[in-house]
Design goal:
InterPro entries: SET_dom, SET_dom_sf. The chain is 4% helix and 30% strand. It is mainly β. Bound molecules: S-adenosylmethionine. Residues 32-35, 72-73, 97-98, 100-102, 142-143, 145-147 line the site of S-adenosylmethionine.
């Protein structure tokens, strides 16, 4: 395991209590692969999970990650710099990596906490029992969206960054 690069070294944040909404399940055979579903009604603006992220260095990303399955799971992650803004990729641990994309019906929003290196997911509206919980990955997808029958397949080098629009709530 490599040490974090100097660009990712920051002052140590305070401890962060973790939370996960309990009434969720992982379904294995959806048209989008695995997906997260509600097993009870969920009110709007409910915190679903606080997920730690694993941030990749810029070169690690292009040399390794983009050539692996992780490529389909990474989020854009801004690096703190004193000069030109730079963005690398990060993998979200926990349930965060299991949320599928929906262009029209996303019901979950997410925010990055750059200091604590977590992504926080909250419902954007009331969710019914049995509904899939979906975020928006943005407009440039690396796969055929089962909801639109194949529109919007992006060039391979356009990373999932993907999980960019739909941020915030
Ligand atoms: C971050 S993962 C989500 C979890 C994934 N379904 C799994 O089983 O590991 C992203 C992948 O899920 C699939 N996916 C997510 N949203 C989709 C959609 N709207 N249509 C088709 N596939 C989707 C694609 O294979 C995509 O590369």
């Amino acid at each position: 395991m490599t040490n974090p690069s100097p660009e990712t070294q920051k002052p140590k944040p305070e401890d962060l209590p973790l939370e996960r909404f309990p009434h969720l399940k992982l379904v294995f055979d959806t048209p989008k692969g695995r997906g997260v579903f509600a097993t009870a009604p969920i009110p709007r603006n409910t915190l679903l999970e606080i997920c730690p992220v694993l941030i990749f260095g810029l070169s690690e990303n292009t040399t390794h990650i983009e050539h692996t399955s992780l490529y389909h799971y990474t989020y854009n992650w801004p690096l703190p710099t004193s000069s030109k803004p730079q963005t690398t990729q990060a993998v979200v641990l926990g349930l965060g990596s299991m949320f599928n994309h929906s262009t029209q019906h996303q019901n979950v929003g997410w925010t990055r906490d750059l200091q604590r290196e977590v992504v926080v997911y909250r419902t954007l509206r009331e969710v019914q029992e049995g509904e899939e919980l979906c975020i928006s990955y943005g407009g440039r997808l690396t796969f055929v969206d089962v909801e639109d029958g194949g529109e919007g397949v992006e060039e391979v080098e356009e990373v999932l960054g993907r999980i960019e629009v739909g941020e915030g709530d």
